Amino acid sequence: MRTLSYAAADALRLPQITLWLDPLPRSGYENMAADELLLHRPGAWLRIYRWRESCVSFGYFDTVATARSIFPGAACYIRRWTGGGIVDHRHGATYTLTLPAPPANALPLPSASVLYAHIHGALAQALQSAGVPCRLLTHDVPSGGRACWASPVTSDIVDPTGRKLAGAGQRRHRGAVLHQGLIQQCSPLPGWETYLAHLLAVQVRTLRAASPWPGFPSELAELCKLKYLAPAWEDESHGRRSSSH
After folding, report:
1. What's the Cα-to-Cα distance from 44 to each of 108, 238, 240, rounded to whole Å?
2. SS (H, E, C) the chain
3. Residue 19: beta bridge partners?
4. Where are the domains of the chain?
5. For residue 236, what pLDDT is reported?
6. 81 close to 32: Cβ distance less than 8 angstroms
7. How much is the mean pLDDT over the chain?
8. CATH architecture, domain defined by 6-234
9. How far is the C-alpha of 132 from the C-alpha of 189, rounded, in Å?
10. How many CB atoms lie under 10 A from the CB of residue 130?
11. Taking the model in full, what pTM does it have?
12. Is the separation of the CB atoms in 129 and 195 below 8 Å?
């Protein structure tokens, strides 16, 4: 499996991360809003979550019409704040990692490609420990269209035959990073989430509450209303006309 060198990976290891095992299945809009709220919280977060209904998400520059044409019949189609292709969340496990912006006097976070390889290198190790044979892809595969699983890219996770098992989209905002990932076409044994958190950080704080901090429900509802449920977020303006987020 191709990963960063040990020294490089160790240099990127976080001092602490909060592993949030979100117990509450949420709508597509709520899941996107919850991820964005984490990006604005102090520290690094790893959120593992589920969906309340059948949902398809699509990258920031894709369209709902394209998503519907590729994956018809879902109850919800939601634009992500990150990039990446179109993903059918009716199968697989979803996670989000947020990395805070470094202090003003520190170096910025590495490039998107370096972070992608680091995060997926750790995820591949966690999946291997949970009984899933896998490796990092070393090159882009010719595009199979906008469906994320049809177009694997460098540092996506694949099985020994080259079938894609995990991919993600990223966004950088004011120096912080939002990484939204999905695992499909495999069944890792329980505990991969905790192992992943320990690979990413020296210390792990685990939360299993539906509200990870006081005031979270009201913040979630407000962001859904102002951004993810706004009609402008679904159309080609991507919400830029009506939201400052």
Report:
1. 15, 26, 27
2. CCCCCHHHHHHHCEEEEEEEECCCCECHHHHHHHHHHHHCCCCEEEEEECECCCEEEECCCCCHHHHHHHCCCCCEEEECCCCCCEEECCCCEEEEEEECCCCCCCCCCCCHHHHHHHHHHHHHHHHHHCCCCCEECCCCCCCCCCEHHHCCCCCCEECCCCCEEEEEEEEEECCEEEEEEEECCCCCCCCHHHHHHHHHEEEEEEECCCCCCCCHHHHHHHHHHHHHCCHHHHCCCCCCCCCCC
3. 46, 206
4. 6-234
5. 66
6. yes
7. 90
8. 2-Layer Sandwich (3.30)
9. 8
10. 17
11. 0.91
12. yes
Residues 189-208: what's their mean pLDDT? Answer: 97
The neighbour count for residue 192, using CB atoms within 10 Å, is: 22
Q: Which amino acid is at 225?
A: K
Name the pLDDT band for 245 (thresholds 50, 70, 90).
Answer: very low
pLDDT of amino acid 232: 87
User: What is the distance of C-alpha 41 from the center of its chain?
Assistant: 16
Q: At what angle do helices 28-39 and 216-223 cross, to 10 degrees?
A: 110
Helical packing angle, 192-200 and 112-129, nearest 10°: 140
Residue 210 token pair: 């539906």
| Neighbour order of strands in the sheet with 76-79 | 76-79, 55-58, 87-88
Confidence category of residue 85, pLDDT binned at 50, 70, 90 = confident
Q: What pLDDT does residue 145 have?
A: 65
Amino acid at 103: P
What is the reported pLDDT for 146?
65
